[in-house]
Amino acid sequence: MYLKLFYIDGFVESMKARFLIIAFLMSITFHAQSFNIDDIGYIHPDNYDSTIGLLSTDHLWDKNIFKVCWIDKSKLPEKKMRWVREALKRSWEKYSSVRFVGWRECSSLHSDIRIKVVDERSTSYLGTAALTRDSKEYTMRLNFTYKKFAPYECEPFNKGLKFCVQGTAVHEFGHALGFAHEQHRHDTPDTCEYTDDDDWDTPFGEWDEHSVMNYCNPLRNNGGYLSATDKRMVATFYPPAKNLIMPGFNAQYYLERNPEIFELTDMNYGEAYKYWINEGIQMGQRASREFDIRFYINHYKDIKRNFGVDYKSAYWYWVNQDRKSSRIGSKEVLVSIIIITALM
Ligand SMILES: [Zn+2]
């Protein structure tokens, strides 16, 4: 491997400076065309135009660390509290920068999510709507027993109480993050009988039968495991803090535009890079604003002559030679250079 792996936190300074200038210029110059400054890893939900699920953009948080507490914690069984935390770790937390912290007794100290455990219907305030709630009141109800309330909801699956408690927790914490019921979408098929229209505003892409947020999922709350589209949704709106940036490759850029690779690599950035190098680049796939193999090949006659359709070799040539010279790898970079030159 003759490339150095580096993450955005330990970004090479000159690269960083270059990206920031480009990102800044693009943000002011192309605002009307909705350019995102996603090369530095930020996407505003309003500018994101595809994918899945259903959410309330008014209720998304602008943070990713949430303090959680239990009401009357000392009376609650340790084991079941652990089930909840395990389920969140393998779902929302695994595929995003979301972290649920604290988990102490609710007290006068502020917590974002305050859980009351009771044998009733489980509920949660939708995202930031929890802020309207008195700080002494619960914002979420979870059921640890299912004896009085809806035992029939769990029994048909014959998977035991853990299955039900964990699935419900993942579903309710989805609401706490601002995600609404999938079956509230207007394009919900007639076969799904829970169609009502409240508190939703933004459907994304295809209706997702397997979402943890879908009452019509054949498996209750998808067993507490995120569907492929749930993973993409949470990763989009609460993006993982670290991004893998390589020459010509930005993991977030690549995965957001290629859902099938997101799924294939289970959002593992290193795997996504390997896939791009071994398969994607040869298919002409683009993985950053900085580099577009088709532009590069067509822009320079000598590159086209020397490499033809051997995109992978052309990419390595760009990495090792042209990238360090004044030769450019994409139309966007070309435009930025023209603007910088014009400003000087
Ligand atoms: Zn719900």
What report would you give on this structure?
The protein is elongated, with a radius of gyration of 23 Å. Strands 4-3-5-7-6 form a five-stranded mixed beta sheet, covered by helices on one side. Mean pLDDT is 79; it is low at 1-52. The chain has 344 residues and is of the alpha/beta class. The protein has twelve helices and ten strands. It has helices at 13-29, 78-89, 151-154, 160-176, 228-237, 251-257, 259-264, 269-280, 293-299, 301-307, 311-320, 331-343; strands at residues 6-7, 54-55, 65-70, 99-105, 113-117, 123-124, 140-142, 202-203, 244-246, 249-250. Zinc ion is lined by residues 171, 175, 181.
Keyphrases for this structure?
344 residues; alpha/beta; Collagenase (Catalytic Domain); 2 domains; 5-stranded mixed β-sheet; 35% helix; binds zinc ion
Q: Which structural class is indicated by helix and strand composition?
A: alpha/beta
The hetero compounds bound to this protein are:
zinc ion
- Can you tell me the overall shape? elongated
Tally of individual helices = 12
Instruction: Supply the number of structural domains.
Output: 2
The overall average pLDDT, rounded, is: 79
How many strand units?
10
Distance between the termini: 39 Å
What is the annotated CATH architecture of the largest domain?
3-Layer(aba) Sandwich
CATH class of the largest domain: Alpha Beta
